Amino acid sequence: MPIRRRAISMKMQSIVLGALLTTLALACTDEKERLPAYLRIEPFRVESLGGAEWQNITEAWVYVNNQFLGGYSIPALVPVLEEDTCTVLVFPGVKENGQILTPAVYPMFQRHEGKVVLTPAQTTALTPTTRYVPDIRFPWPIERGSFDASAIVLFDRDDNPKTGFELTTEDAFAGRSVRMRVDTANALNDVATEAVEGLPATAARQVWLELHRRNDVPFEMWLLADDGPGTTEYSASVFRFGPAPAWTKIYLNLTEPLVSMGERKRHRLLFRLALRPNSSGQYERLSGTVLFDNIRLAHF
After folding, report:
1. Taking the CA atoms of the chain, what radius of gyration do you get in angstroms?
2. Which regions in the chain score pLDDT beneath 50?
3. N or C: at which end does the chain have fewer Cβ atoms within 10 angstroms?
C-alpha cells in the first residue's frame, strides 16, 4: 500500500510539472518581442577655434539613462532598449597616437549631455556638441599654434645653414603652415619650438599634443627638456610619423614620455626630418618635405 501511494504521488507531481511547463511555454509564445529604438549619433559639432574641421573626432562613447551602450565609430546607429524621454551622454573620442586599434575618450573635450525622446522601431538623430574642458591649460595660446599671426617661435637646431624652415601659404592647411625640406646633400633637418614651462610629469595630469601634418617622407618628433639656460638638455624620442599625402590630424598622448623624463623646468618639441640611406648606402628618395600646422599643447 505505501508503494502505491508513492506511485500516485509521483504521478501527480509529473502532471503538475507538465501543466506548469505548458503554461510557461504558452506565456513565452504570447509575449511580444521588445523592439529597440534607434539613436543616430552624427559627427560632433566643436565649439572652439577652427571648429570640427580642425578636429578629427572619430568615436563616440554612448550612455542612455546611465547605461553604457558601447563605443562607436561615428556616424553610428545605436539600438536602445529605452523609450520616451531619456538622458543621453556622449563622450568624444579620437585615435590615440594615430593608431586605429587604440580609440580613446579624449579627456580635453567635454562630454555632450542632453535629453532625447526615443520611440521603439524609430530613429532619432543627435548631433552632439563639445568644447575644450574649462580647466584645460594651453602653454601656447591656440592662436599662436596656427602660425598665422603671433606664431610659436621656431629654431633651427642642426647647425646647417642650408636647412631650416619657412612659413608658407603654398599647400598650407589654412593661412600659413610650417615647411621643412631635406635632400641628399642636406639630409638632416632639426627644428625645435621655443621652450614652455610648467608641463606636469605625473600620470595623474595628462598632456596631449594636437597637430596637423602633411609629409611625403617619414619624420620624427622628440621632447627636449632642461632646468633652465646652461643646464643639461635631455631628449626623448616620442613618435615617428609615416607619410601622409593629405593633411592629417593626430592626437599624441605625451604623458608617458614626460613622466619618464622626470620633473624638468622647461620643455620643447623638436621635429626631425631625415633622409636615411638603405643597407646598401643608397637613398631611396632624393628629397623630402614636411608641412605641419595647428600645434595645440594641452594639459590639466
Report:
1. 29
2. 1-31
3. N
